[in-house]
Structures are given as C-alpha cells and as structure tokens.
Amino acid sequence: MIQTRNIQKILIANRGEIAERIIKTCHRMRIKTVAVYSEADAGLRYVQKADEAYPLEGIHSNDTYLNQDRIIDIALTSGADAIHPGYGFLSENGAFVRKIEEKDLIFIGPSAHSIDAMGNKIKAKQLAHDARVPLIPGNPSSVRSTEQALIEAENIGYPVLLKAAAGGGGMGMRRVDQPGELKEYFPRVKGEAKSYFGDETIFIEKFIEDPKHIEIQIFGDKNGHLIHLFERDCSIQRRHQKVLEEAPCSLIRPETRTKMAEAALRLARQVNYYSSGTVEFLMDKNQNFYFLEMNTRLQVEHPVTEMITGTDLVEWQIRVADGQPLPCRQEDLIINGHAIELRLYAEEYLYDFSPSPGHIQKMNLPEVSGMRLDMGFQGGDEVTLYYDPMIGKIICHGKNREDCIQKFSEWLKNAMIYGVETTLPFGQYVLKDPEFLSGKYTISYCDQLEEKHMQQDEKKLGEIAAIVAKYWWDSEKENRFLLE
C-alpha cells in the first residue's frame, strides 16, 4: 500500500477560474493555498482568495506560469507540500513533475511516466494498439518526407490528416483532400510542429468525416484501482478547442458507452495510470469509435461530470496524490440527470470567435439553483491578450436533457456582461438550434455557423427587399392612379 503524507498546503501553478476552483475545494478540505500571479493578473480575485500569494515577475507565459524553477522556489519558500498544475501551462509536462519530486514535493496529477507516454501522439497510438483500443486507419509511426506522405495518403485514401506527434489543442494539424495540397501543407505542418512543440515529428491518418468528439473520464489511485465516470460529448469546438460540452452524450447507445469505457480503462492500465485523466475518441454516425488522444490532467469540462455523478474531482486528485485510495467503486457510480457547460470566452462568435479583450465594466450572472458559475473574472477586471480569453464557465444541471436545456436557456435570458463581447450569445443560439436539440451535431458544427448565418442574412435581406419592392410597387400604382 502507498503511504499517505497528509497534504497541508498546496501551491496552484495556474491562474483565473481554475485557480479559484481549486482554492474552493482546498478550503473546504481545510488545506492552505498559495497563489502565483503575473503582473497582468495581480488584481484577479483568485489572488485575494488564496491564503498566500506570490508574484511572478513579468507578463508573458514563458516568464511567469511556465517558469518552472520560479514556481518550485515559491513552493519551497511558502512551505507548500504539493503543487497543483490546473490545466494548460505545466499540467502535462513530465520534466516539471520530476523537478517537483526531486525537491520532495508532491505533484497533484499522474506520474511523469504516464504524462510522457501519452504526450507523444505516436507513442500513445502504439500503446493504444497494444491495449486493443480501436485506432483511426493510418500510419502510427512518423512520416519523414513529402514523398513518403504521398505514398501513405494514397494507401489510406483521401481525405487525410497531418498531425504533429507532440501536438495538442488543434495546433500542428491540417486536413488534406488531394496530393497537391499534401505537397503544400507537409512542410508547413512540420514547421508548425517545430515552432509550437519543439518537435517536427508528424504522422498521417484517415480524416473521419463529421464525427462526434466523445471523451471518457477515468480516475485511478496509486494502488492500481481504476474507474470511469462515464462520457462527455465535446463536439462543439472552434479551432479544435471546445466551447460547449454536455454529459452524458444524448445519442450514445449503452453498449457503445460500455465498450468505450472499457477501452479507456485498458489504455490507462497500460501506463499504470493514477489521478484524473481523459481518453478521447472520435465516434462516427454508426457509433464506431477511434482513439484520438489521452489528456493526462484535469479537463476544463470536468464540472459536467461532477454534476451528473455528485463528485468533486479536484478533491479526488488531492487525496490520490496524498496516497489515499479512490473514495468509491465503479458500481457506486450512476448517471444522475444531465449537465451542460458553456465556456465563457471574451470572444465574438459571429466573427470566427475572434478575441475581444478589454475592461469588464459589469457582470450580471444570476446565481440560481441548478446553475454553477466557475468564474475567474468579475466586474472591473481587464481581459488581456496575454493569455487564454476564458472568463469562466457556466454549468447547468437538470433532471434530464430537456430540463437542462430549458433551465439554461431561461438563465441566459437574464445574463449579461458589459464591456467585452462574450460567448453568452453563442450559448443562446446553440440551445435553440434544432441541430443541437436533436443531439446529432458533430465537430463541424462551429465551422458551419458562418455559412448558416450568411444564409440567414441573405434570407433577411431578401425579405427586406421584397417588402421594399412591394412598397415601391404599391406607391407606383397609387401615383399612377393620382396622375390618371
């Protein structure tokens, strides 16, 4: 059995809403918290809510939230026992984990071995193959030249996807529909992979047309026990990053859920996984599913899982990191109702989700039963261009999907943020859209939005033109009558 260490103080190596979310659980558990902040974030409320707060000199991520040595020094200076990375930044960095453990600190997350194994897409696919997890047709090893890529694409069949082996968040990824495009895009994707991830290794696989993006939440402890907490439908994405998620998936068949969860757990066992993790799949219209990747961290969308299972995954992370066993067994978990999360970005969705930085003048976000607000900003705060523009997350829980949608729609009618454009109107649009209501939406949903709005605008212009033409015709008839 793993020996417990009794964590008393945690440094949170992150910012905004996830830092505040972790602080909330820590305080409930009577654990002290240490915040770190850049010069741009000094006024955010997570800094005030932490028990202690230390500055990270500078503004840019490389100088602040990615500065491993500075963060570890602050943890040691403050007397913290452990470091929680949140998500993004250093949350999936095996080297950071090793540095933490070398200083006899606890990393609240999986082992460096698991992070490294799943961080490289080619290695992850090989491990998934060994675990009998269905893979997207393609070459699971690296493709080194345009000539080799052309041969592989011909064997797989177009369209294909070029992907950076060390990629994530949609970076270093390009759809290719024919050989001419492949010749053009291959060197570009290699360059993006080198620039974003410091590794130009890329691979090629079949592009699955219009799938759903389904992910399984898994959790393990250091004694080898593993469970899953069902699935989330994360198909509504812009630039391969999620905007709205729901749990459970409204269309998934029970047998598909079981097979997908079993596959996720087999992969987790392959790398002796513990802590929170997510195995992501693409699911086609026939509910065939294919391994996409494994995220070795807490996900942004974890609240929808918490809402339908009655759990606190941050508390679980802390207890598992401390050497404690999982607090429940698989048979203890059931799906209770339905949950939907809207990521509240400072973005203008009608203009391809372009960033909308600026001063938040005022927020009107009602606190009502069944609604959860995980916020990182408040009125008076500044949304800058230095970091991700997420202001927070709005999560709704209902007794079923219909109830959840109705409750969320009613809430959105009274919600308002002044000073910056946000994704609140996007949420209003989606929750009334017949395609979303049917549950049949896929990962191409946001890509088709611009075309839908253009068609709606053309229809409105046509209706206006018809009204103007009728008015003109009626006026002409009246004028003719008067002249006669």
Overall description:
The chain is 37% helix and 24% strand. The strands form six sheets. An eight-stranded antiparallel sheet has the order 14-13-10-11-12-15-22-20, sandwiched between helices. The chain has four domains: 9-108, Rossmann fold; 137-206, 2-Layer Sandwich (Dna Ligase, domain 1), CATH 3.30.1490; 212-438, D-amino Acid Aminotransferase, Chain A, domain 1; 449-484. By secondary structure, it is α+β, with helices and mostly antiparallel strands. Strand 1 (9-12), helix 1 and strand 2 form a beta-alpha-beta unit. The chain contains 15 helices and 23 strands. The chain has helices at residues 16-28, 45-49, 68-78, 94-102, 112-119, 121-130, 146-156, 179-197, 254-270, 302-309, 313-321, 401-413, 424-430, 434-438, 449-483; strands at residues 9-12, 32-37, 52-55, 82-84, 106-107, 138-139, 160-164, 173-176, 202-206, 212-220, 226-238, 241-247, 275-283, 289-295, 338-345, 347-348, 354-355, 358-359, 362-364, 371-375, 382-383, 390-398, 416-418. The radius of gyration is 25 Å and the shape is globular.
Question: What is this entry, summarized?
Answer:
The chain has 484 residues and is an alpha+beta fold. The protein has 4 domains: 9-108, Rossmann fold, CATH 3.40.50.20; 137-206, ATP-grasp fold, A domain (Dna Ligase, domain 1), CATH 3.30.1490.20; 212-438, 2-Layer Sandwich (D-amino Acid Aminotransferase, Chain A, domain 1); 449-484.
